Amino acid sequence: MALIMRPLPHWQFVLFSGVTALAFAIIILAFWAETAHWLLGLFLGINMIMLGVAMAKVSLPHKESAGPV
């Protein structure tokens, strides 16, 4: 998705969100037997926050250029 959004400003935040999601997935798969449920929830929460920040950063320049509604 980040590569598709490349022409937009702040597309790097979407790329960073995807990289962190992949890192969390690798950690979960590597330590699946020892992974506690709270850790899965923590990773999911961090991932959702990162994606939300990325989407907000990408959309803010478009809000300013759209003018009043």
From TrEMBL:
Residues passing through the membrane, by range: 12-32, 38-56
Keyword tags: Membrane, Transmembrane, Transmembrane helix
UniProt protein name: Integral membrane protein
Species this protein is from: Methyloglobulus morosus KoM1
